[in-house]
Amino acid sequence: MLRGLIKGDNAFVPTAALRVAVGNGVDVAALLVTEQGRVRGDADIVFDGVPAHPSGAVRLSAGEGGRVWLETGLASVEEEIARVLVVASTQEGALRDVRGLSVEVFGPDGATVVGYEVTDAGGETAMVLAELYRRSGGWKFRAVGQGYVDGLTGLAVDHGVDVDEDPQEVLERIPAPAPAAVPPAPAGAPAQGLRLTRDQILDMTPAQIRALALAQKQARAEAPDQTPLTASSPPAPKPDPSAWTCGPVFKPRTVTGRDNDVITVKDLPHGPVMVELTLKGDRYTGLWPLDESNAKGRYLVSTTEKDFRGRVITSVPEHGRLRLRLEASGSWQVRILPLAEARRLSKDRLESWGPDVLLHTGGTADVTFHYNGDSNFIGHLYRLAGHTDPTTLPNPGRSVVSEIGARRETLPLPEGPLLVYLSAADGPWDARLKDVQPHSSGQDADGPAKPPEPRGALGWLRRARR
């Protein structure tokens, strides 16, 4: 390899469309992580089951001779993403058994830019081979070579991937032994309705797991009046989307003050919330969340508009204490609101000013915005169907609108429920829906609703659990 690096070395690479070749005969994935080293959700994992990132910045494809290619458009990587990790794993054996384990980066002209050959792999079954990371306005490549003896699960946990799956699904994948071979049930075996955690299952012996699966099967057989949900059983009906809510529900909190301040609101539930800011002033206004070390996060508001008002989204930490840094000149009011109080989009004209959070619960539709501001008009979609974690929002992907100055914009909306988050809109605007289709009932002509699709990350992780 040209410009071969050793473990720990780094080098600048061009901010361009690069091709990364990984060899030899290993499973390859890419994790797009934030400055904190964590993925934002399953969508930030690119592997053979989901070979392209929603942003289009990273794509995976198979090559010849055991090589796997990662196509990386560095100029298209979202601003929140600080690093792209190149991950290799094995389904059988350890990485020390892989010959020619390496990473090589090719430029747009096909010439090798930099490379790294792993020479010290041991008993690990998963490894972060290398990373592309932001530095000084550009990008660098680092030879990492960090292995994980506990495989993809350990690597995933280190980078914020939710590794939990349905424990009942684990049991259903384990075939029950013949009755003569069943060992005594483990002490304290759970009753039919009790579900074990993943860690409890992993701590059990194979014999105990098989006995537990058989005990639960027998318990279900002895309780015919309690029909279990199986692959042939109809799933629970979908909730009425018009009654949809997301995030924690709580009584709104209000704080008032004047000029620069640090705002602290205690005893809030963990999860995404709206912050509504109303200000009487004509100078710069900035609003940032503060972390536990009092460091500013990414700004929520940054404007010089007079008498600013608007709603933005932030997240309450697990300890329930939300802290915000406000830079302002004049009197202000801050309200902390649940997402359930987002304004509803409809066929009626909705008029507002500044950033805002809008809720759509109907079927497919078009939304028309008429924006009368002079600066940025930026919007994102959070698709919420099937999203059941109240402490997070799904990854919004790239912005659906990003314009400057007054304009009229019509956007197609997928079926709700979904949030339209106008993260930047320094001026008045109005919105209304048109061509609204009926919301799908989830029933087709031939039978009941389809069950929800399995999480993408679980397909990637399960290979480490076989």
Could you list some keywords that capture this structure?
single chain, 466 residues, mainly beta, Lipoxygenase-1, Jelly Rolls, 3 domains, six-stranded mixed beta sheet, six-stranded antiparallel beta sheet, 5 helices, 29 strands, 9% helix
Structural class: mainly beta
Q: Ends: how far apart? A: 35 Å
Number of domains: 3
What is the annotated CATH architecture of the largest domain?
Answer: Sandwich
Number of helices: 5
CATH homologous superfamily name of the largest domain?
sav2460 like domains
Average pLDDT metric = 81
What spatial order of strands do you see in the largest sheet?
1-10-9-3-7-6
Alpha-carbon Rg, integer: 26 Å
| Shape, per Cα inertia axes | globular
**Main beta-sheet annotation:** 6 strands, mixed
Q: How is the secondary structure organized here?
A:
Blueprint: E1 4-5, E2 10-13, E3 17-23, E4 27-33, E5 45-46, E6 58-62, E7 68-73, E8 83-89, E9 102-106, E10 112-117, E11 126-135, E12 138-148, H1 151-158, H2 167-172, H3 198-203, H4 206-221, E13 253-258, E14 261-265, E15 271-280, E16 285-289, E17 301-303, E18 309-316, E19 322-327, E20 331-338, E21 343-344, E22 350-353, E23 356-360, E24 365-371, E25 376-383, E26 401-404, E27 407-413, E28 418-425, E29 428-434, H5 456-462
Parallel strand pairs: 1-10, 21-23
Antiparallel strand pairs: 2-12, 3-7, 3-9, 4-5, 4-8, 6-7, 8-11, 9-10, 11-12, 13-20, 14-19, 15-18, 15-20, 16-17, 16-19, 22-29, 23-28, 24-27, 24-29, 25-26, 25-28
